[in-house]
Amino acid sequence: MAMYFEESSGEFIRPDFSPAYSVVIIICLWALFHIGILPRDFLLIAQKSVGIFM
Q1: How far apart are CA 16 and CA 13, in angstroms?
Q2: Any residues with CB less than 8 A from the CB of 42 and at least 6 apart, and which?
Q3: pLDDT means over runs of 10, the chain (54 residues)
């Protein structure tokens, strides 16, 4: 709560992005688009995993 009552410094501090952070973001975006555009492989894996219990 204290951060809401203090005066801001007025300077924008840019966060540091490490190379590992950038790689993880790129991998997540690739997976998101891959699953969204070509979901067939993932749906087949899900169907096979549910088929074990039937």
Answers
A1: 9
A2: 35
A3: 68 83 94 90 88 76
3 state SS of 54: coil
Q: Are 42 and 35 in contact (CB under 8 A)?
A: yes
Phi and psi at 18, nearest 5°, equal: -80, 160
Distance CA 28, CA 18 (A): 16
The owner of tokens 């891959």 is: 34
The owner of tokens 């979901």 is 39
Place of tokens 């074990």: 52
